């Protein structure tokens, strides 16, 4: 796993996530390439692209800065 340092404090950031609210509860956030086209009946987004990546959120334990990165599934 890649480690990220806070650009302000120079300390290692901790990985987490911000849950997305969907019709069935909560889900992870995903980045999708292309343009948004529609929403399914179950609340899932449809788009013109074919790539999606899990979005990981990293938080600095010193200053609280949050940074989000779209990570390939194999990380």
Describe, in plain words, how this protein is organized in 3D.
This protein is mainly β. 0% of the residues lie in helices and 44% in strands. It is built from no helices and 8 strands. The chain has strands at residues 14-16, 20-22, 25-27, 30-32, 36-39, 45-47, 52-59, 66-71. It is elongated and about 45 Å long. It starts with 13 loop residues before the first strand and ends with a strand.
Describe this protein with a few key phrases:
75 residues, two-stranded antiparallel ribbon, 4-stranded antiparallel β-sheet, mainly beta
Characterize the largest beta sheet: strand count, sense, and whether it forms a barrel. 4 strands, antiparallel
Listing every helix as H and every strand as E from the N terminus to the C terminus, the arrangement reads: EEEEEEEE
CA-based shape = elongated
Helix content: under 10%
Question: Tally the helices: what do you get?
Answer: 0
SS-based structural class? mainly beta
Name the quaternary structure.
single chain
Number of strands: 8
Distance between the termini: 6 Å
Give a brief outline of the structure.
The chain is mainly β and 75 residues long. Helices cover 0% and strands 44% of the residues.
Set out the fold topology.
Blueprint: E1 14-16, E2 20-22, E3 25-27, E4 30-32, E5 36-39, E6 45-47, E7 52-59, E8 66-71
Antiparallel strand pairs: 1-7, 2-3, 4-7, 5-6, 7-8
């Amino acid at each position: 796993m890649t480690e990220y340092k806070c650009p302000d404090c120079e300390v290692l950031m901790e990985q987490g996530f911000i849950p997305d609210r969907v019709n069935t509860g909560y889900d992870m956030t995903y980045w999708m390439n292309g343009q948004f086209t529609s929403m399914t009946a179950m609340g899932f987004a449809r788009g013109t692209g074919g790539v999606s990546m899990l979005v990981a959120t990293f938080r600095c334990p010193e200053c609280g800065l949050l940074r989000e990165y779209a990570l390939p599934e194999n990380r």
